[in-house]
């Protein structure tokens, strides 16, 4: 009988986890560089987005190409609720997640009971149409300009930094708990062979809709934070660009893992932000790299580094 | 709301539907035979439009020759795409979706970097309009639509009667059995992918003069094709043709009453309604 090391059981050496977390906590106290803090906040946002995408598309196998739609829904909801109801930002962020979740339930009911191809098509159509509506319905959504002057949690960068970090840790903890629990094994089972899992007595549609709902809730939640942090929300947050970034981060890091998207999100966010002189060519480089990775090396970085922990 | 207006919307919708059927049938072939969601289908159309632009405007060649050249270029491109990308990733939905998606982004960005975001137009090569009983059509659209229907009819006949067409149908119905019977499934797959993309290229050759040409123009046709294919039934060519006509009428009607922005939302609405009441589509087969 094999005894797994802690590294193999958890998927990541706890020492590395602890050290990185400590490093992230300490960074704002040892540097005055606000740009670095901003990049880390952005990276944390993408960590949550990518990990949430991975649990639906990687673990469950239902590829959600409309992830940006839920991110943007959370952002726009927060913008509206702050304007109309004068709610505290904490509550409106939660409501942002809730609204995204409700929309995802609707999409899920119509397409998760069918063949996987249908889900891909419906999600990408949903995202594109939301984006198109947000860009052209200027009277309600502000068009390309978006909505401005959204209240934020605090104008101090440090508060936003630790809020983002805390949110990231909480969301990753939720996803990690799901993955390691019975629900995670159920998702993998449904991914492998849906008929067999149905025959074993699992209500696969329920679990699929549940996962998609959780994934979208987290996306909407972090979208709400994003809107508060930036102070504005534009149709760009609903666009394919966000989904594309999420896909790239997940695959660079390693799909169907929790820590892979984290690594990928940090790498790509830092590269994109610090190599800003390369900005014009960023998308083409990223798409070429992603294409090569997906075709030739789909395992991702995390399977290269932690060979024994992952298949 | 005179009856003449309704008839005009209807006929106009049929014509537009005929235009869409080209690209949609290409997609349904690939979906049916290879069971691959090709998110780069829109970019095949876009590349075809750019090829047509350069052939007709820069090189100033004969439009018919331009059409054939465009089809050839897109076909060869698709063969390479299939061989390098689709073949390896076909087994895993996540990999093939991400691969074709990044291919679509790659081609859009490559064209944008090389030739800029400028909106271009190609002058129509069949100028003028025809009128019957007070309804006018522009000739370009009419000819394109009729050509589409003729070509697709020819294709359907070939699939039903021709030798290679029989091979395609066999691979669609039961891939393993087809390979056991000696059909080279790899060749059939690569050819079908090429034909599907070539149909998109042909649509590009005919439709390019009608709309603006810009690097991101691939996405709307992609989504419309998805909606048409869902409406008609994945893998069924006849259903797709019929669905594209219905779709054309709905789109023209929505644009007429609510403005063209909402026509895009109508795509999604049709899709959702069909998925709720009859996910198989009009003539589709399996969905589970």
Q: Tell me the count of domains of chain B.
A: 1
Q: What is the SS-derived class of chain B?
A: mainly alpha
Helix content of chain B: over 70%
User: What is the makeup of the main sheet of chain B?
Assistant: 2 strands, antiparallel
Radius of gyration over C-alpha positions of chain B, nearest whole angstrom? 19 Å
Structural class of chain A: mainly alpha
What oligomeric state is this? Answer: heterodimer
Task: Identify the CATH architecture of chain B.
Answer: Orthogonal Bundle
How does this structure look, described?
The complex is a heterodimer of chains A (311) and B (288). With 311 residues, chain A is mostly helical. Chain A has 15 helices and no strands. In chain A, helix 3 (34-59) crosses helix 12 (240-253), helix 9 (182-192) crosses helix 11 and helix 12 crosses helix 14. With 288 residues, chain B is mainly α. Chain B has a single domain (3-123, 132-277), classed as ABC transporter involved in vitamin B12 uptake, BtuC (Orthogonal Bundle), CATH 1.10.3470. Chain B is built from eleven helices and two strands. The longest helix of chain B is centred in the N-terminal third of the chain and has 32 residues, at 3-34. The radius of gyration of chain B is 19 Å and the shape is globular. Chain B starts with a helix and ends in an 11-residue tail after the last helix. The mean pLDDT of chain B is 83. The chains are: A mainly alpha (311), B mainly alpha (288). At the A-B interface, helix 6, helix 12 and helix 14 of A face helix 3, helix 4, helix 9 and helix 11 of B.
